[in-house]
Amino acid sequence: MLLPLKVVGFGAGVLLLGIGVPLLWVFIASKLSDTFLKVPLLPLLVMVSGLFVTYMLLATVVARFDKERAAMGPARMSWNRSLSAERNQQSKTTQWERVFITTALVMTFLFEVWFFVFAGSSLPGSG
């Protein structure tokens, strides 16, 4: 019973991170384009900096409350291990890390599909 709930939550997290946050900042930037401030690149600057700050804040909040990562203990770098330590130790990712990684991969794939299939050419004289 818990697995379908996790899958739905995972999908909702990917959609929220990949589509919801960027659309929110596009909406905010579009509202700034019609204001009395006629700075040409202000909406673009607000959108890019807003996306960056939002993703950094989300990653910080997730890292702060990620009990799964805290239970793993601190990460040990390879130079900090003894010579007799296991060489091929698998790095483990938490559920939250998998959400961020999946979001990046899915959105990159969707952008490439849009760019190469649907975007068309912006060059003059090309169909």
Please give a structural write-up.
- 67% of the residues lie in helices and 0% in strands.
- The chain has 127 residues and is an all-alpha fold.
- The longest helix is centred in the first third of the chain and has 31 residues, at 2-32.
- The relative contact order is 0.10.
- The model has no long low-confidence stretch (mean pLDDT 82).
Helix content: 55-70%
**Low-pLDDT segments:** none
Radius of gyration: 21 Å
Structural class label: mainly alpha
Topology:
Layout: H1 2-32, H2 42-65, H3 67-72, H4 95-118
Label this structure with key terms.
single chain, mainly alpha, 4 helices, 67% helix
Summarize the structure.
This protein is an all-alpha fold. The protein contains 4 helices and no strands. It is elongated.
